[in-house]
Design goal:
Length: 359
């Protein structure tokens, strides 16, 4: 059996790269012939020579070029991709891919805000006689726009089996199709903390421990300046330096700024942290996996982006959730019950993967 995974594997984001690697790695560990379908998303715009030069200069000045090189090395070292790269939905349609099983991978592959009019991650190009599954796919929104519902329903009904990463995605699929999908964990949680430590053993940093890691993203909402009060409060309570990853230069004492690191260095930073402050889903997932004291900072209780809430409630770690403008931090973090729940969630997810791969 030859398996092809379609996911957002070459987006310049730690979580995207690591979830793609994790699903590939786990299925490989079961002995299957599997690879990532090398579909480049989002599609690169055709720019004039002048605009390409300007963009390239900005990339070098910002350090993004250095980060791109580190990610490319990660792809080269840890990915197994299809021999052909596909740059558009039309190229996927005409490719006549020869996999026995197609899997839509995880991350925000079904997020209507990201994919816009490209429905490739719903596998419309796959022949009807081929097996089609999803693993931990995410809409990352609580509801779909009405104009998308009919086409998404039609595409979902062509899957042999569907699994999703969030409870909100469960509701979307069930409301559209009448079918209840499986609820499974993010691929990064399929790999235990001991395995991740082996994988990242050579990705060391010259950072003196202990430290607080602050990994603050702004794509879902802008947490500044309120997030700074949370960082200062935790730093004052623990009295250790703050390592700020890919953040702005701040006028805060005892802060170490780190930028543009490799994906496995990101994992190692979380593994070695005394405490983690994050607005990131994968920052949350790795903190859970490594049993770190942490807080996941969320904008408000509106439920627009439920990814972190759903994961933390599933393993009974929702006391790690704090809201950007209204927070009460609990530094006394114990993992006895949480780890049992996480292992149970992992086992259930592995059971689903085994069920779809043994056809």
């Amino acid at each position: 059996m030859k398996i092809g995974i379609l996911t957002m594997h070459k987006v310049l984001n730690y979580g995207s790269a690591l979830q793609a690697f994790a699903l590939l790695h786990y299925i490989q560990s079961l002995g299957y012939d599997v690879e990532l379908i090398d579909y480049i998303f989002p599609h690169k715009q055709k720019l004039s020579i002048v605009r390409r030069v300007i963009r390239g200069a900005k990339s070098v000045l910002s350090g993004r070029y250095n980060m791109q090189n580190k990610f490319q090395k990660f792809y080269n070292d840890f990915y197994k991709c299809s021999k052909i790269t596909y740059n558009s939905p039309a190229e996927l349609v005409s490719a006549d891919l020869d996999y026995d099983i197609f899997i839509t991978g995880s991350d925000q592959v079904w997020n209507p805000i990201h994919i816009k009019d490209d429905y490739s991650f719903f596998l419309p190009f796959v022949p009807e006689n081929k097996l089609k599954y999803s693993y931990a796919s995410s809409f990352s929104v609580s509801s779909l726009p009405n104009e998308r519902k009919s086409i998404v329903k039609e595409l979902l009904l062509k899957y042999d089996k569907v699994s999703v990463r969030e409870k909100s995605s469960l509701d979307i699929v069930k409301d559209l199709t009448g079918i209840t999908p499986e609820y499974v964990c993010d691929p990064t949680l399929l790999i235990t903390k001991e395995e991740w430590r082996q994988i990242t053993a050579d990705c060391t940093f010259n950072i003196e421990k202990p430290y607080i890691l602050a990994y603050i993203l702004k794509y879902a909402y802008n947490p500044y300046p309120d997030i700074l009060n949370i960082i200062k409060k935790i730093r004052n309570e623990l009295d250790v330096p703050v390592v700020f990853l890919d953040g702005p230069k701040l006028d805060i004492k005892n802060v170490i700024n780190i930028n543009n690191i490799a994906p496995l260095q990101f994992v190692n930073l979380i593994n070695n942290a005394k405490y983690v402050i994050t607005t990131s889903f994968h920052g949350t997932a790795f903190s859970l996996n490594f049993e770190k004291p942490f807080v996941s900072v969320i904008k408000n209780r509106s439920g627009f982006d439920t990814r972190m809430i759903d994961l933390l409630e599933t393993v009974n770690a929702d006391r790690a959730i704090i809201y950007n403008e209204d927070f009460n931090i609990d530094l006394d973090f114990t993992y006895s019950e949480i780890s049992v729940n996480l292992n149970r969630f992992r086992d259930k997810s592995i059971e689903y993967l085994n069920s779809i791969l043994k056809h």
